[in-house]
Specification:
It contains 6 helices and 5 strands. It starts with a helix and ends with a helix. Strand 1 (80-83) and strand 2 form a beta hairpin. The strands form 2 sheets. A 3-stranded antiparallel beta sheet has the order 4-3-5. The protein has a two-stranded antiparallel sheet with strand order 1-2. Helix content is 47%, strand content 13%. It is of the alpha+beta class.
């Protein structure tokens, strides 16, 4: 019955759903305490289980409407809830990513030269400033380099002006 919480919430049976979630939290607390007792005194085991136990404690203690850090996935704790602001899809879960590729097409296809995950809040004011500076450096090197790279996260932040777009057209973008 405890694994039926989402089905019970869908059926508007919130008291039964909360009771099953309390049961699951109790089970998780028992497992956490049991593992902690069994590895007590063994430094190697404590080091091996430290991250897993920390994640489990976070999951057990987090609340539905809490602000700040929450764990949505145990196997990928960097996953975050991203608010989309759309009625048909208000939230998305994942990590924003920056991808850099070569501008010129190779015979074997397009190759990715760099992928960078950006957990946290990558689009705050300092990120915009850094991306703009990166974009300016990139546009300066586009005209001089024979096989430049493009950071798509940096280039998608603002549209190019007419002089910048003409230099991009001349360089073969």
């Amino acid at each position: 019955m405890p694994d039926q919480a989402s089905a019970l919430r869908h059926a508007k049976q919130f008291k039964r759903a909360n009771r099953s979630l309390r049961k699951l939290r109790t089970y998780l607390g028992r497992v956490i305490r049991d593992i902690a007792r069994r590895i007590e005194g063994n430094e190697a085991l404590q080091a091996a289980f430290a991250r897993s136990l920390s994640l489990a404690r976070t999951v057990r203690d987090q609340k539905q409407h809490q602000r700040g850090y929450k764990v949505y996935s145990l196997h990928a704790p960097e996953v975050e809830c991203i608010g989309k602001g759309k009625a048909h899809k208000p939230y998305e879960f994942g990590v924003k990513v920056s991808v850099a590729t070569t501008l010129s097409h190779a015979k074997g296809g397009q190759f990715v030269t760099h992928v960078k995950a950006m957990p946290g809040k990558p689009y705050d004011a300092t990120h915009w400033q850094q991306s703009y500076r990166r974009w300016k450096r990139l546009s300066a090197t586009l005209s001089s380099a024979s096989s430049p790279t493009r950071d798509t996260a940096a280039t998608t932040h603002r549209p190019a002006t007419s002089s910048e777009s003409s230099s991009l057209v001349r360089s073969g973008v």
